[in-house]
Amino acid sequence: MSPVIAAHGLNLTYETRDGPVHALKDVSLSVGKGEFVSFIGPSGCGKTTFLRCVAALEQPTSGTLTVNGMEPDAARRARAYGYVFQAAGLYPWRTIAGNIALPLEIMGFPKPERAERVARVLKLVDLEGFAAKFPWQLSGGMQQRASIARALAFDADILLMDEPFGALDEIVRDRLNEELLRLWAATGKTALFVTHSIPEAVYLSTKIVVMSPRPGRITDVIDSPLPRDRPLDIRDTPEFIAIAHRVREGLRAGHGDAD
Ligand code: ADP
Ligand code: MG
Question: Which of 73, 74, 187 is nearest to 125 (CA)?
């Protein structure tokens, strides 16, 4: 089966007033349908830049990148992905349902179908009772779930998530991690997920991409041997701890190179 994301020798250099910044260097990566791929690495290693390339918001300087077998720009126009950011980015003057419906309105979905889709994704993220609430009436974790629902509403088969739980406390984050896994299993989406948390990356992923900065590059790609069905206490197993250890080693090695 052809990969959903295929990057070969991707380079991206930002021209800045202080000179060029090599944000991605020789990045090659293949992501299969239905995989959950986490990107982990220190600030500035190009995680966001890579996601933005996939989303056709950034143009690589060299190398090739395809999304669903297409040029990223064509994939964007075909609505290949939903994007979730660290800040939920919900409009305070719209209800939760209104926020989720907004991209559907822009895309021209008729009203009855919008209502049906909004109801379906609210159920998926366990916010059925909150359709008529405003964002400020929800906790940070619930707002982030609403933001994921918005990204799911038009049924793109790729979900791009850039540190979606980075601002949440660990207890809320644990619960959202469990929910996200359940959601991913239920929907069969391909997920690209940026995080700073080693346990989060290991818990969620079928594949973990370890990156390092200056220049931003991949230092390790770990195919997880963990089963797809993962209770939270899998984090106490020797298998989990061994993967976490390998991620930590990869991060340390990358850091040594940079300094
Ligand atoms: P990460 O998400 O891993 O923290 P980024 O992809 O945001 O890293 O950034 C990678 C590098 O590129 C950093 O050095 C950052 O300062 C630089 N960078 C990111 N976006 C821009 C931009 N629009 N213009 C210039 N430099 C940028
Ligand atoms: Mg970033």
Answer: 187
> According to the model, what pLDDT value does residue 256 have?
58
What distance in Å separates the CA atoms of residue 146 and residue 140, rounded to the nearest whole number? 10
* 162 alpha carbon, closest ligand: 2
**How many CB atoms are closer than 10 A to CB 39?**
26
Strand partners, 194: 39, 162
Question: Domain span at residue 62?
Answer: 1-80+158-168+185-196+207-233+241-246
222-227 contacts: CB < 8 A, separation 24 or more? Answer: 222/246, 222/247, 222/250, 226/202
Q: 145 and 37: one domain? A: no
For residue range 66-84, what is the model confidence (pLDDT) as tens digits? Answer: 999 999 999 999 999 999 9
Q: Whose CA is nearest to atom 21 of ligand 1?
A: 14
Mean pLDDT across the chain: 93
Q: Please give the structure tokens belonging to residue 129.
A: 């009772």
* DSSP notation for 163-231: STTTTS-HHHHHHHHHHHHHHHHHH--EEEEEES-HHHHHHH-SEEEEEETTTTEEEEEEE--S-S---
- Nearest CA to 30 out of 54, 48, 11 is that of 54
> Residue 219 has which token pair?
């230092």
Around ligand 1, the residues with Cβ closer than 6 Å are 14, 16, 21, 23, 43-49, 216
Is residue 32 assigned to a domain? yes
Q: Whose CA is nearest to atom 12 of ligand 1?
A: 23
**What is d(CA 182, CA 16) in angstroms, rounded to the nearest whole number?**
42
What is the rounded distance in angstroms from the CA atom of residue 109 to the CA atom of residue 115?
10
pTM confidence score: 0.94
